[in-house]
């Protein structure tokens, strides 16, 4: 009886195999998660409001490779603040995963020890946050058009082809304050 049940389970599980790679098609639009500035490892004072999360995560990789975790934490907090702001202004909710995908792609190659060093720096900066909050406020809210995110969503394939992808009457000041509060626990100004 046990052999019969095992045989049935084997048949059922082999029938559940995923499709072969040959039949999977990955569609991407131009600009999806695209970085526009090739950045080196930057400290918070070198970060500009024109840098997208795609730009910042790319530069963050340089920081980690050079074991400059203080600057890596700066770039991470700026990227996440800008990304949060972008999720508030981009209409297509399916596009909001762009920042999560950028983060996963950036950190996937690193082992847990390296990630723990970065997490330690981020935790320190957001616990004693007066300096990082002041620096993020000085940089200011993003000045770029969030194409990297808009082109990541389903709307890039459907209804948004003729719009700019942004929410009408968007309250940028409120969204920026919210981004700083959520990411770095900054008090409202």
From TrEMBL:
Protein name: Lipoprotein
Protein species of origin: Aliiglaciecola lipolytica E3
């Amino acid at each position: 009886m046990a052999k019969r049940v095992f045989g049935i389970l084997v048949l059922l599980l082999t029938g559940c195999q995923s499709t072969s790679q040959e039949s999977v098609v990955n569609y991407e639009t131009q600009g999806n998660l695209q970085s526009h500035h090739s950045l080196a490892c930057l400290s918070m004072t070198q970060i500009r409001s024109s840098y997208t999360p795609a730009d910042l995560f790319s530069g963050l990789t340089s920081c980690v490779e050079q074991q400059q975790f203080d600057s890596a934490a700066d770039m991470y907090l700026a990227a996440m603040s800008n990304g949060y702001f972008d999720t508030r202004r981009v209409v297509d909710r399916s596009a909001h995963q762009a920042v999560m995908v950028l983060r996963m792609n950036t950190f996937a190659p690193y082992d847990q020890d390296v990630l723990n060093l970065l997490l330690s720096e981020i935790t320190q900066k957001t616990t004693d946050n007066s300096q990082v909050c002041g620096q993020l406020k000085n940089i200011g809210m993003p000045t770029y058009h969030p194409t990297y995110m808009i082109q990541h969503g389903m709307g890039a394939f459907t209804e948004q082809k003729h719009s700019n992808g942004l929410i009408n009457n968007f309250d940028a000041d409120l969204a920026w304050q919210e981004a700083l509060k959520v990411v770095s626990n900054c008090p409202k100004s």
